[in-house]
Structures are given as structure tokens and as C-alpha cells.
């Protein structure tokens, strides 16, 4: 008997599975409708889920491929939008820079209108890499009417230096911080005079001042107009420290420049004093 059961186990299994499906479908149908169930309805109830399952399985590869394609397209769109956003940010940054530059140029032109009518605006295009010479190159020269020895000032009216060399289209400006620079200075408060000398760095030195002269910290030192280069009254710097020399005869005075040389982009070239007069 047991051997007979083993030989027919597959048939028994299928029969049991069929009965289970029929019971489940009948149970399902009983919830859907309270009326009698026909053979046609029972057949539909049996095969419809099977057909839906087969259709879902057959459509799975295509649906998967479509999902992969959509994901790829989405990634490409995200990449494109990122690049577009970078370009827009760069364009916005450029526009802000242009607006800032335009506003600054307008300010410079307003300053120029208050200077002698022959003063010229120049842009700094190169800095001297030497650690000894403190100078830079500007974008105007002889063709623009620049003369050697002309005074150079900042937008705020502080003395930058003087034109040292001139070519057709460019000029080299020696800064007042250079050790070869010396400018006749005047304490604007007390009227004490001396020579503002470059030290190769900051601060500057206000030399040839007697120890007893009235020079105090924070006094503003301006050009005295002597020497034939710098007109009178342009700021050289302010006193940061005052001491007495070892022999007690002269003052040792340090002056912070009125110009922030690291922030310079544009400068004004003044005509020689005899032209100003």
C-alpha cells in the first residue's frame, strides 16, 4: 500500500494543490458575491490570477529595462543641471565682479575730477619680483604723456611713489617703501619738517628731525612740496612710534604708510609740479 502511495505521490500532490486552489477561490468568491457561483465564474476565478501572474513575470524584464533607462536619464539630467548651475553661478559671480569694478571706476573718475586736469589714471599690470626693489609696472607710458619723475598717488590721495622708468606704453613706479626713496615730509599738525625714507618694508622712517621737535604719535605726515616731485599736502603716513637716538640729538620716528600697497589696482599719475603750477 505504501509503495502504491509513493508511486502516485505526484498525482496526489497535484490533486491536493488543485483542491486547495479551488477552496481558496471559492472562499474568495464568497466574499465578493453572495450569489451562486457558476462554472464559468469559477474558471475565470482560477485562471485570471494565473494569467495576471504570467503577464507580470513576462513584463518584468521590460519594466526593469525601462526603470534602468529612466534612472540613467535622471542621472544625466541631474549632471546637466549641476553643470548648468555652475555656469549660472560663474556668470552671476562675473556680473557681480563687473558691477563692483564699474562702481569702483566711477569712484575713481569722481576722484580724478578733483585732481589737476592733466592727472592720468593707470592700472597696475605687474609687480617687481625682486625683494630689494619695491616697484610695479603700470599700463601707460610716453605715448600717454607720462614723464619720468612724475608723482604717483592712490585713489584716497596717499603718496604711492614716483615714475622711475618710462617706455612707449608702460612705466615703472618706485614705491616710497623702497630704500632708494626719499620724500620731503611735513607734520601737518605741528609743521615740523623732515625726510620720509623707505626702509624696504613698513614702517617708513621720518628722518632729520631734532629730538626736541613737536612730533607726536598719530600725527599725519604729508608731502611738503619741496624737492620738485610731489605737490604739497598729499598724505605719506601717520606716526606710529617716536624715540630718541643714542646720542640724544635726533628723533627716531616710524611712520605707517597712508597707502595699502597690497590692495592697489589703479593709481593716478600727477603731472610735474611746474605743470600743476
Strand residue percentage: 15-25%
Question: Segments where pLDDT lies below 50 for 5+ residues?
Answer: 2-6, 30-35
Q: Based on the structure given, which CATH architecture of one domain is correct?
A: Beta Barrel
The secondary-structure element order is: HHHEEEEEEEEEEEEH
Q: What is the end-to-end distance?
A: 136 Å
Q: Classify the fold: give the CATH topology of one domain.
A: Thrombin, subunit H
Please tell me the overall pLDDT.
78
Class of one domain in CATH? Mainly Beta
Largest sheet properties: 6 strands, antiparallel, barrel
User: Looking across the biggest beta sheet, what order are the strands in?
Assistant: 1-2-5-4-3-12
Total beta-strand segments: 12
The coarse overall form would be: elongated
Radius of gyration: 45 Å
CATH superfamily of one domain: Rod shape-determining protein MreC, domain 1
**Helical region count?**
4
Helicity level, as a percent range? 25-40%
Based on helices, strands and strand pairing, what is the structural class? alpha+beta
Amino acid at each position: 500500500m505504501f509503495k502504491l502511495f509513493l508511486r502516485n505521490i505526484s498525482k496526489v500532490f497535484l490533486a491536493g494543490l488543485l483542491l486547495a486552489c479551488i477552496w481558496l477561490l471559492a472562499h474568495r468568491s464568497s466574499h465578493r458575491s453572495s450569489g451562486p457561483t457558476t462554472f464559468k465564474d469559477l474558471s475565470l476565478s482560477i485562471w485570471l490570477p494565473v494569467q495576471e501572474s504570467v503577464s507580470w513575470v513576462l513584463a518584468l524584464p521590460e519594466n526593469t529595462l525601462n526603470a534602468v533607462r529612466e534612472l540613467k536619464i535622471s542621472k544625466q539630467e541631474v549632471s546637466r543641471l549641476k553643470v548648468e548651475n555652475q555656469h549660472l553661478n560663474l556668470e552671476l559671480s562675473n556680473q557681480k565682479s563687473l558691477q563692483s569694478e564699474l562702481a569702483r571706476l566711477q569712484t575713481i573718475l569722481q576722484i580724478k575730477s578733483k585732481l589737476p586736469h592733466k592727472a592720468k589714471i593707470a592700472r597696475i599690470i605687474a609687480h617687481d619680483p625682486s625683494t630689494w626693489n619695491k616697484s610695479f609696472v603700470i599700463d601707460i607710458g610716453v605715448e600717454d604723456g607720462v614723464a619720468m619723475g612724475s608723482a604717483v598717488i592712490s585713489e584716497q590721495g596717499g603718496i604711492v611713489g614716483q615714475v622711475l622708468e618710462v617706455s612707449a606704453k608702460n612705466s615703472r613706479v618706485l614705491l616710497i617703501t623702497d630704500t632708494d626713496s626719499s620724500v620731503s615730509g611735513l607734520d601737518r599738525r605741528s609743521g615740523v619738517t623732515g625726510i620720509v625714507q623707505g626702509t624696504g618694508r613698513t614702517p617708513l622712517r621720518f628722518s632729520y628731525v631734532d629730538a626736541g621737535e613737536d612730533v607726536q604719535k598719530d600725527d599725519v605726515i604729508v608731502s611738503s612740496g619741496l624737492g620738485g616731485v610731489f605737490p604739497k599736502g598729499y598724505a605719506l603716513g601717520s606716526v606710529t612710534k617716536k624715540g630718541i637716538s643714542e646720542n640724544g640729538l635726533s628723533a627716531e620716528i616710524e611712520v605707517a604708510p597712508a597707502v595699502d600697497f597690497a590692495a592697489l589696482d589703479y593709481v593716478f599719475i600727477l603731472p610735474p609740479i611746474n605743470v600743476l603750477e
